[in-house]
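Journal club prep, notes for RB
We'll compare a predicted complex against what the paper describes. Inputs for the 4-(N,N-dimethylamino)cinnamoyl-COA case:
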Amino acid sequence: MTWEAVRLEWDGDVATLTVDRPDALNALNVETLEAMNEALAAAANDGARALVLTGAGESFIAGADIKYMQSLSPEEGQEWGELGHSVADALEAFPAPTVAAVNGYAFGGGCEMALACDLRVGAESALIGNTEIDLGIIPGWGATQRLPRLVGDETARRMIFLGERLDAETAEREGLFGEVVPDDELDARVAELAGQLAAKPAFAVRAAKQSINQHHEGPLAAGLAYEKRAFASLFGSHDQREGMAAFIEDREADFE
Ligand code: DAK
C-alpha cells in the first residue's frame, strides 16, 4: 500500500511511519489522517514489534492544517475532531511500543500525535507545544487529557492556556521528552531504541503497555485490577517460561 502524504518503511520488525507533506511542514489534513490510520493498521497487521512516528524534512508535524480548518462548520469540526482522535487512539492502542522521533516543529495536533505515542525522543532543535489557544480553539485530539498525565497539571495548564512552545531542553526537563539528542543523531538513536523495544518479548511488552494505558482510561482501582489480570495471563506463556529459565540458567533468552 502506498499513500501520497505518508510513508511506511520497515527495518526488520520496526515500522517507521513518516508524515510526508514537507511543503506544509507536515500539517495534518483529511487525506493525511486517513492515510495514517491505514498505515497504522497495516503496520499492526504485518506484525510490527515497534513503531516510529516522524515527519519528513525539517518538521515533525506543525499541527492540524489551519488552511483546511479555517472555514469548517461546527458539524464539519466534529467530524474532523473524530478523525484526528481516531489516529491518536490508534497510536495509543497500537499493539507494540511507539516512539515519536520529534525532529522539528510539533505544534497543536502534531504535539497531540506525539503525546499519543508511548515514548518521545526530541532533536535538540525541536519545538513542541499546544499552540491552539492563539487560533481561538483548544487542543481537540486528546492533549487536555494526555498532557496533564505526562507533565503534571500545572505545566499542562500553562502550556495550553498560554500556547507555550517549549524548546527541547525544557520539554525534557518537564517530562515531555524522555531524552534529547543532537539533530544529526536522532535517527540513529531512535533506531537503536526501537530495536531494543522490538527485541523484548512482544506479548509481555503489549501486556505492560495495555496495563499502563488502563491508568489513562479509568480510576486507579480499575487500572490496578487490569494490571493484575494482565500479569497473571502471562504466566505459562512461552516467553515467561523461557525468560525466567534463561535467567536461572544464566544464558540469553530465546523469545518468540
Ligand atoms: N497548517 C497549514 N499549513 C501550515 C501549518 C499548519 N498548521 N504550519 C505551517 N504551514 C505551512 C505554511 O502556511 C507555509 O505554507 P506556504 O505559505 O509556503 O504555502 C509552509 O507550511 C511553511 O510555513 P512557514 O512559512 O510559516 O514556515 P516558518 O519556518 O516561517 O514557520 C512555523 C514555521 C511552524 C513556526 C509556522 O508555520 C507556524 O506557526 N505554523 C502554525 C503552527 C500551529 O499553530 N500549529 C497548530 C495548528 S492548530 C480539533 C481538533 C484538533 C485541532 C483542531 C480542532 N477539533 C476537535 C475540531 C488541532 C489544531 C491545531 O493543530
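Talking point for the session: The radius of gyration is 19 Å.
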